[in-house]
Structures are given as structure tokens and as C-alpha cells.
Design goal:
There is one protein chain. By secondary structure, the protein is α+β, with helices and mostly antiparallel strands. The protein is about 25% helix and about 30% strand. It has three helices and five strands; from the N terminus they run H-H-E-E-H-E-E-E. The chain has a five-stranded antiparallel beta sheet. About 5% of the residues have low confidence.
Length: about 140
């Protein structure tokens, strides 16, 4: 067995950080992976950098409680609890931000053999549809 084959077979054993990093990089919106053991941000994509919800671009390996926006922390913790209670479903919460942009936060647990390996969270901008006024 080659080293590459051995490495491929060992995916799922131990640290899932590389897998989480590669997964969140595939999303076209800001996304992060959160560890279920300690609520630490274990990976995020480049779209998190400079995102209006985060004051600090350096959030990797920070705990949720270390984020500066209390409403974001509360919202993420609410989603985490929903994902713990019902890990086989995607859960979504709205989140208005101080920047005037509204977001939808979505979470999905990534599982292996019935255990949660990590959570993926996506931050999608929500645009309100403006009603058109027609004068007759």
C-alpha cells in the first residue's frame, strides 16, 4: 500500500481539521467549521476575512465566546443547540447586523459513524425585496 492510499484510508481517524478546511473553502459564501468538543472555530474560508459580522480577521482557533458581537455568539450557540438536538437536519436563523445587512445563518452537523465530527456554518446575505409602487 502506498503512502497516499494509507493517508486516504486514515481519513476519519483523529483530527478532521483538514477535511473541514477543504469543505468550507468550497462554499461561495462566508463559512466556518466549529468543533463540537469546545466550540472552537477550527476552519473558515477566505470570505470570512473582512466580513461585516467579524471585527477581527483572525478568528481561527478562537472560541465562540471570544467573538466580539454578542448577538452573533448568541445566534451561533442557539444553532449549535438545535444541531445537537437534531443533528440530521440543517438549521437556520436570521441575523440582522449593525452594518444594515441582514444575514441568514445555517448550520449542519458533519457526522461520522453517528458521532458529530464538526459543524459547518454558512453566512448568507439576505436582501429584502422592495415592493414596487405603481402610480396609475
Amino acid at each position: 500500500m502506498s503512502q497516499d492510499e494509507s493517508n486516504q484510508m486514515s481519513v476519519g481517524l483523529g483530527d478532521k481539521t483538514m477535511e473541514a478546511s477543504e469543505l468550507v473553502e468550497m462554499f461561495p459564501v462566508a463559512a466556518m467549521a466549529i468543533s463540537p468538543e469546545n466550540e472552537m472555530i477550527m476552519a473558515h474560508n477566505a470570505l470570512v476575512n473582512g466580513h461585516p459580522l467579524f471585527d477581527d480577521d483572525n478568528i481561527l482557533e478562537k472560541y465562540l465566546d471570544d467573538l466580539t458581537d454578542p448577538s452573533l455568539v448568541e445566534n451561533l450557540k442557539d444553532l449549535l443547540q438545535k444541531a445537537v438536538d437534531n443533528p440530521n437536519q440543517k438549521h437556520t436563523n436570521p441575523l440582522p447586523s449593525a452594518s444594515g445587512i441582514n444575514f441568514e445563518l445555517s448550520i449542519k452537523s458533519i457526522q461520522e459513524m453517528g458521532n458529530i465530527s464538526y459543524y459547518v456554518v454558512c453566512f448568507t446575505e439576505v436582501y429584502e425585496e422592495e415592493e414596487e409602487n405603481y402610480e396609475e
